[in-house]
Prior knowledge:
The N and C termini lie far apart (40 Å). The chain contains 7 helices and no strands. The protein has 180 residues and is mainly alpha-helical.
Amino acid sequence: MIDIKYTANVITMGRIFGSFLLLLFKALSVPFFLIYALCGASDVLDGYIARKTKTVSKFGEALDSIADLVFIGVMLFICIPLFVWARWMIYWISIIAIIHLLTFGIGFAKYHAMSFLHTYANKITGIILFCILFLYRAFGLTAAVCISCGFASLSALEELAITIRSKKLNRNVASIFSKI
């Protein structure tokens, strides 16, 4: 039996495992979508459980950010060859990645720690990125990319601005409008 104080972290590690498990299944197949849905549910569940059981920790916050990066990395690995990408889409995704790397570098230099933030904009972007395959099925690739990259751009720029402006690391800052 898992000790209650580790439950959220075990769920987060399950998302990392599930992300890699996605690589074993045909993209967009039923087993793929089942594992995909479990990964998405775990992203919501781990934080909820940590808050409800009062087991929120810096380690758990960092692990959650790592799990998000692994999931996004695996999904990029799967989706890049799956679709026919327009050049502007690749540029837009690359610019977002560069902003995130810049933010991470500035945060690491300032705080000597991983500085991924859990803002509302990042949470909304995470939900939208999770829904990108559903958006693709419903509206096509162009709309899915515009919607997801639009939100991802705003959240990346907000995270950069918060990192530059803040004097100390607060991974759980709600938004740029919060007291920094």
